[in-house]
Amino acid sequence: MAAPPKTPAPIIAKLNSALNETLKMPEMKEQYKKLGLDVRGGTPEDMAKVMKDDTERWGAVIKAANIPHSERVAPQAHVWRLPILVAYNKP
Fold first, then answer.
1. What pLDDT, in 10s, does the model give residues 52-69?
2. What's the pTM value of the predicted model, to 2 decimals?
3. How many CB atoms are located within 10 Å of the residue 22 CB?
4. Is the torsion defined by CA of 62, 3, 19, 11 positive or negative?
5. What are the residues facing 26 on neighbouring strands?
6. Which of 10, 55, 73, 88 is deepest in the core (most CB within 10 A)?
7. How confident is the model at residue 82 (pLDDT cuts 50, 70, 90)?
8. Three-state SS string across 29-73, please?
């Protein structure tokens, strides 16, 4: 999950805390497991690191494959910038 860039830090902290608590619920863990997802709570800083690492890793692949910029991201991808939850597929 992500929030718009200028979302105030106290709101990010509150959302992050609530989402992390929700992810601890057994029923939530089970639902995500059924979807094949390894969902982990964390901090905005944790997610920023994941995004940075993924950008570096996959950026090299995209460049090597000569994928045009127009095919790299969905048009709405630029709207959300501040991560508040770490949730991604298993590597």
1. 888 888 888 888 988 887
2. 0.59
3. 12
4. positive
5. none
6. 88
7. very low
8. HHHHHHCCEEEECCCHHHHHHHHHHHHHHHHHHHHHCCCCHHHCC
8 A C-beta contact, residue 89 and residue 8: no
Token pair of 64 as six digits = 């090597």
Residues 6+ apart with CB under 8 A from 41: 19, 20, 23, 24, 85, 86
What is the rounded CA–CA span in Å between residue 70 and residue 36? 29
Please, what's the largest Cα pairwise distance for the chain? 43
Per-residue pLDDT tens over the stretch 4-13: 888 888 998 8
In this structure, the number of other CB atoms found within 10 A of the CB of residue 39 comes to 18
Length of the chain as a residue count: 91
Token pair of 18 as six digits? 């609530």
- The whole-number pLDDT of residue 27 equals 92
* Residue 72 DSSP one-character state: T
